[in-house]
Every structure is written in C-alpha cells, then in structure tokens.
Amino acid sequence: MKQLTLIVGDEFLASVEVTRVRAAWEKKGFGVEEADPEDAQAVFYALDTPAMFGDGRLVIVRGKAAALEREADRLVAWAERPPEGIAAVLVCGASAKLKKALGRLADVVEVAAPKPWETPEWVVRYLKAGGRVIKRDAAAALVEAVGTDLRDLAGRAEQLATSTNGAIGVADVTRLFRGHDTQLYSFLESVLARDTGPALRRLNALLASGATHPLVLTTTLANQFRALAAVRETPGAPPAALAKELGLSVGYLNRARKHARAFDAEDVRRGFELLARADDTLKGGARGNELPDRLVVELLVLELGGGREASATRR
Fold it and tell me: Does domain 4-111 have CATH number 3.40.50.300?
C-alpha cells in the first residue's frame, strides 16, 4: 500500500473505500484526522507534521476536485518524498488531472455505481469486505425487496450481518424483511396520504421492531420523494422504465403515481428540504443532534404530512 491513495468517483462508494483504507492504516497504529481541501495551508501542515508520539498519522482530504487540482504540483512533490509515518487519502469526484499527475505515485481507486443488474454482486462484495458471506440468490432477494439504491442496500445488508450468523441465505432475507416490507409499504402509504396518525403508529412499529434505523427511514422517504418528483415531471412514463432509471423498485413509482395529485411542485421541494434537514440532524449536523433519533423522525413525519400551512404554524 502506497502512502498516498487517490479515490475518485461516486460519493457514497468513495466513502466505502475511505472506510476500507482507513481501517488498513488504523491496523498499523496510525491516527486519523481530516483536512479541508479549501484550506491548502491546513492540508499541507497536516501532511508535513509528524505524529506527536510517533505512531503515524493518516490525513483524509475530501472535497471538490477543483480545490485539490489547484495544489496538484505540491501534492506531486509531497507524494514523491512523503514523510515517514504520514499517509494521505485524497477523495473527490472525477479528476483526469489528478489521476494523470498522481497515477504513478498513488494507489488510484476509481469507483462507479454498478448497473442495476450488477447490484446483487455489489452486495456480495460489500458484505465480503466486512468479513461476511451472503449467497448470490440471497443478495438478489435483498435487491428485489429493497431496490437498487446503494445507501439503502448497505444499511439493510448491515442489518442482516448483525442479526445473523454464518452465510446469509434467502431465508434470512425473507425472515428479516418480508414482514418489514409490509409495514414499510403501509408507512409510506400513510405519509403520502398525509394521514399522520396511522403514519406515526406505523413509524413507531418499524422502530420498535429493531430492523429499521432512523437513517434508513429517511433514505427510504427520500427515495419515495424522488419517485414522486419523477412521476410529476414525466406523468406518462411507464413505472418500470422510471424505476430502472432511478434505481428503485417499481413499488415506489406505483405509490407515487397513486398519490401524485396530493403534492404540487412546492410540496415536493419542501419535502426534500425537510428530509435533508432530518438526515443532517440524525448524523450529528454542525451543532450535533440534541434530540432523540425517534423524535427527529416523528417530527419529520408530522411536517411531511401536515402540508405547508401546518409547517408554517409550527415554525
């Protein structure tokens, strides 16, 4: 493993690769810190400063490619003679300039989302990287139940990993998600129908089951609103075609079509805004999360179901 790793491509898949590289350096006793690529002085101070106790340091720099490209010459100079005990990971979107400049000096990892029909193999590799085995037919059953959104799949795959032993088979997927899928279907129906009482009851049932993390619910709701936006923009498109384009199961599109008249363009925009805010809060946000996760999601459901007038009243 070289002291410099360059990871380019899809944001979520890049984060998965960062986790893998980080674990490898932490196993060697390296401490980890992150630096903002917009602050070049801070980046190179971190890259040139040895660890205080000599255990080694891994510096992770992730952000827009342009910020890193501005410092390409300095990064090349650093990579040609990296200080002992310091490693670095650079993470950004597509960047032909950085790949060309650092290609011989760094481990270059390019990540791209798999085609929909390749998603089961991605699930197999994802769990294998975490030390678990899932059978190919079980991975296909998971994709069929959940859809092809990789964040959602990763969350569900990790739920499977923590609730099973040995190789994961179709029976494990069925046991954990089939009844759950029925609950989830009813929950999404209630949210789109703006029926907040049943939506909250079904939300609490999902959380009580232990099979659904609040962040998985915000991702699922975001997928439903993506489907809603697509149906509104292309009302005549076949659900199967839209589902393939969006990487979702057809159920999202059928549900969106059923409830599309209840949401205008502003409702959809506001829905995405509320979902982004809830997602940020659940992940800690800039100020941390001072509310219980359950309350964050309950408030989100109330806001999504209440419409603009109710939301304005609460504010």
Answer: yes
| Among 182, 178, 183, CA closest to 141 | 178
**What mean pLDDT comes out for the span 267-293?**
82
| Choice among 211-215, 263-267, 301-305 with the minimum mean pLDDT | 211-215
Cα 56 to Cα 138: distance, rounded to the nearest angstrom: 41
Question: Region 154-169: what's the mean pLDDT?
Answer: 88
Write down the pTM of the prediction: 0.57
CA distance 84 to 117: 44
What is the rounded distance in angstroms from the CA atom of residue 242 to the CA atom of residue 220? Answer: 17
Domain ranges of the chain: 4-111, 116-314
Decide: residue 57, CB within 10 A, 0-12 exposed, 13-18 middle, 19+ buried.
Answer: buried
Q: Give the architecture-level CATH label for domain 116-314.
A: Up-down Bundle (1.20)
Q: State whether residue 61 is helix, strand or coil.
A: strand
Q: What is the largest CA-CA distance in the chain?
A: 64
Q: What pLDDT, on the 0 to 100 scale, is given for residue 178?
A: 63
Task: Give the pair of three-digit tokens for residue 142.
Answer: 């998971």
Q: Where are the beta strands (DSSP E) in the chain?
A: 4-9, 31-35, 57-62, 86-92, 107-111
Q: What is the DSSP string of 80-148?
A: HSPPTTEEEEEEES--HHHHHHHTTTSEEEEE-PPPGGGHHHHHHHHHHHTT--B-HHHHHHHHHHH-S
Answer left, alpha or beta for residue 155, where phi above 0 means left and psi between -120 and 50 means alpha. alpha
